[in-house]
Design goal:
The structure holds 2 protein chains of 2 kinds. Chain A has helices at about 1-25, 65-75, 80-85, 105-115, 130-145. Chain A is an all-alpha fold. In chain A, helix 2 (about 65-75) packs across helix 5 (about 130-145) and helix 4 packs across helix 5. Chain B starts with a helix and ends with a strand. Chain B folds into 2 domains: about 1-35; about 35-625, Quinoprotein alcohol dehydrogenase-like superfamily (Methanol Dehydrogenase, Chain A).
């Protein structure tokens, strides 16, 4: 089955590629020749967002106490807690302390969600916050539900034993009992 | 003649009922169309053994239909139907069920017009029209308004909708992105669409509109995002905006500048209180929104509504009374001009929205016949007001342990606030009862003129509240508070309270383990219906609260029961099952149980809803089987 599909793709690709080179040579070429652009050899990403590493610098901050505290302060000052919950457990927006990452758990993914915004109401903070502040928020969000979380939530009287939730590669699981 | 007598009697009877029903609904529709501007003249009173009377007009629809959100514009949620009664309700069975396909909070109730049921879904606010026939529902059509998805992230407390209103061949309702739409009731196509608010600044609409003559009235949500509350009137036929009455600002903008504006109490008298009772321009971010229920008195020709919390939860940022938050306001529906206003709680420090239903009743009150509004409050008090003047006749606690105030001074109209429970910036105030979600939430009570009782769906949470600094950033939450709620004293978080209005006290209660977050229906059959967040739909005896029937549904109930007569002459009862809303959203996986301050503080009191219900989207209809 696979070989048949590859064969079809290949046979389609050849004349179209030829069409593109003509287009580059002749700007007046009719757009019809662009129909059926060749398929990218790389599969589309399993999650929304770019299918290749974003051209974003690395998080300059390590997950240090001062940085996560700064991130927590920004989380409150910029009203993130109003939507995402007092300790980021969710509300108007989704929980940021559970095991689910709607748009990826890498620092660059979290940075992109904050900077560019997301559908259904997440604002694009990149127009208001400088990148270092967004990185601090990113670091705070990655600390949630780990031993490094600053101001972890108090016990919940209506749910005394919540299941452990955080399991991110490279981040210590557990915590929250300080 | 003898040959017709040989026919099976049930068929003859059913045929006759169809004919009567058809003729009646036809004549009612014609009469309504003929009197488009005079439908409010012919008032009749629905009454019962208690002596309480509910004024009703043709705008409520014929007996057996349901044209307005609350069954009438008095907000009684009382049906004159009695085919289902205390003797036979135990035989109630499901007729049909249908999923709307949208697993979010299904608040509100369907409408029933001319054998068609109209269901408004949560965002994306589709409108479904069902014909009810022998085999159950048949979907006639579906209307999709495609509201702006940005609205999802601006709605404080799930993406709910509280229903539609019917008038003159139109179904009118609001979409979450602050538009009002009118849809052709027969064909299901859009008649008009009017944008009323700015969703990117945090304005949404979740409430059900109310129609008075040729005007449809609706208000905004967004008190958690620093918006400015208003009530707007739109032309029923064209969708054109006719007037806006703000709830904060100058008298010119609050429409409190006419000679007819006569507040009863000194506390509410003076010029420009809507701006002067705030520091600087804070009134521009002053909340005081309108997201509950509107009511109308055809004799006084006045619309009544309550307002929400003042903008920014931290009270220290907004010194002053903060008018007109937590107020009941009476307006002329034609001009919007206010006739009176009564601020029930000045300078709120607990986020007690008073957007609750104001039920229009005529009754004996301490030996005199009075025209009243009954307002079961978020504060834990049942308020009774004179609806001609706004005078407070009574304020008694239905939440016994409500501790933010000891009571009310009826001479001044002011609460006796317990200062130790007043919240402040930089400190935590512990054990405040009730919590911000109130002694009851927006979910409406019902009243029965047979028993004289008000049926209050109450819940029992308390809270710790910490005031914090707040930065206003347009389109984001503007709170300045860290709130943690938790179950209140006693074993139960829910109570269906039978409240004797004239005696100003509770007569009985049905206790529920989980918080009640759905509305109530009372009927002339002396049956009261309500749903629970742990998925029970119940029928109780209106006189004593005895549970007569109950049925487990697919999801927790945050909707309001309604009833109607089918084409076959049988009485039906309808309810939504789809957990959601502020408290109910704790059943969603997107809210983490380990953060009691999540979901604006409700997770501490309701996270265990996850154990008894999951999101749902079902609509049920019940009836007593034909024998």
């Amino acid at each position: 089955m696979l070989s048949v599909r590859h064969l079809i793709l290949f046979s389609l690709a050849v004349p179209v590629l030829a069409g593109i080179s003509q287009l580059q040579a002749d700007p007046a070429q009719s757009p019809e020749s662009m129909l059926g652009l060749p398929a990218d050899e790389n599969p589309l990403g399993p999650q929304p967002g770019a299918d290749h590493p974003l051209d974003t610098p690395e998080n300059p901050y390590a997950m240090e106490e001062k940085i996560v505290r700064d991130g927590r302060r920004l989380f409150v000052d910029f009203n993130c807690y109003g939507c995402h919950g007092g300790r980021a457990g969710g509300g108007m927006g989704p929980s940021l302390r559970d095991a689910e990452w709607l748009y990826g758990h890498e620092d660059a993914d979290i940075f992109a969600s904050i900077a560019e915004g997301r559908p259904h109401g997440m604002p694009a903070w990149g127009t208001k916050l400088p990148a270092p502040q967004i990185w601090k928020l990113t670091t705070y969000i990655k600390s949630l539900n780990t031993d490094l979380e600053p101001s972890p939530p108090p016990a919940n009287p209506s749910y005394p034993n919540p299941p452990p939730r955080r399991d991110i590669p490279g981040v210590t699981a557990g915590g929250g009992d300080q | 003649m003898s040959s017709s007598l040989n026919l099976p009697s049930r068929i003859t009877f059913t045929g006759l009922m169809w004919l009567i029903s058809a003729v009646f609904s036809l004549s009612a529709t014609v009469a309504f169309a003929d009197t488009a501007n005079g439908d409010d003249k012919a008032v009749r009173y629905v009454s019962g053994e208690s002596g309480i009377k509910i004024p009703r007009t043709q705008a409520a629809g014929p007996v057996g239909e349901w044209w307005t959100p609350a069954g009438d514009r008095a907000n009684s949620r009382y049906s004159e139907l009695d085919a289902i009664n205390t003797d036979n309700v135990s035989r109630l069975e499901m007729v049909d069920t249908f999923s709307t396909g949208i697993p979010r909070g299904h608040e509100g109730q369907p409408l029933m017009v001319d054998n068609t049921l109209y269901v408004v879904t949560p965002f994306p606010n589709n409108l479904l029209a069902f014909e009810l026939n022998k085999s159950g529902f048949k979907l006639k059509w579906k209307f999709e308004p495609h509201p702006d998805p940005m609205a999802v992230g601006k709605a404080c407390c799930d993406v709910v909708n509280r229903g539609a209103a019917y008038v003159d061949g139109k179904i009118i309702y609001a979409t979450l992105d602050a538009h009002l739409v009118a849809v052709d009731a027969e064909k299901g196509h859009l008649l008009w669409d009017t944008k009323l608010g700015e969703v990117d600044k945090g304005e949404t609409i979740t409430m059900a509109p109310l129609v008075v003559r040729d005007k449809v009235l609706v208000g905004n949500s967004g008190g958690e995002l620093g918006v400015r509350g208003w009530l707007k009137a739109v032309d029923v036929n064209t969708g054109k905006l006719l007037w806006t009455g703000y709830n904060t600002g100058s008298d010119k903008e609050t429409l409190m500048n006419g000679p007819e504006f006569k507040p009863f109490y000194a506390k509410d008298q003076g010029k420009n209180l809507g701006s002067k009772t705030w520091p600087g321009n804070q009134w521009q971010l002053g909340g005081s929104t309108v997201w509950g229920w509107l009511s109308y008195d055809p004799e006084q020709d006045l619309v009544y509504y309550g307002t929400g919390n003042p903008g920014v939860w931290n009270p220290d940022i907004r010194e002053g009374a903060n008018k007109w938050s937590l107020s009941v306001i009476a307006r002329d529906p034609d001009t919007g001009q206010a006739h009176w206003a009564n601020q029930l709680v000045p300078h709120d420090a607990w986020d007690y929205d008073e957007i609750m239903e104001n039920i229009v009743l005529d009754m004996r009150w301490k030996g005199e016949q009075r025209k009243v509004l009954v307002h079961p409050g978020r504060t834990g008090f049942v308020y009774v007001l004179d609806r001609l003047t706004g005078e407070l006749l009574s304020a008694e606690k239905f939440i016994k342990h409500a501790n933010w105030a000891t009571g009310y001074n009826l001479e001044t109209g002011l609460p006796d606030v317990v200062e130790a429970k007043r919240t402040h910036e930089g400190e935590t105030t512990f054990d405040i009862c009730p919590s911000s979600t109130g002694g009851k939430e927006v979910f409406p009570s019902a009243v029965s003129p047979r028993t004289g009782l008000l049926y209050i769906p109450a819940h029992n949470f308390c809270m710790d509240y910490t005031g914090m600094e707040a930065n206003y950033i347009a389109g984001t939450p503007y709170l300045g508070a860290d709130v943690k709620m938790y179950p209140g004293p006693g074993k139960y978080r829910g109570h269906l309270i039978g409240w004797d209005i004239a005696a100003e006290k509770e007569k009985w209660r049905v206790n529920e383990k989980y918080p009640l977050q759905g509305g109530v229906l009372a009927t002339a059959g002396n049956v009261v219906f309500y749903g629970t967040t742990d998925r029970w739909f119940k029928a109780i005896d209106a006189r004593n609260g005895d549970v007569l029937w109950k049925q487990r549904l697919s999801s927790g109930i945050v909707g309001n029961p309604m009833t109607f007569t089918g084409k076959d002459g049988r009485q039906y009862v309808a309810i939504y099952a789809g957990i959601g809303g502020w408290v109910g959203a704790n059943a969603f996986e997107a809210i983490s149980a380990d953060d009691p301050t999540a979901a604006l503080g409700t997770t501490g009191a309701a996270a265990d809803l996850k154990k008894v219900t999951a999101p749902g989207s079902d609509f049920y209809v019940f009836a007593i089987p034909e024998t």
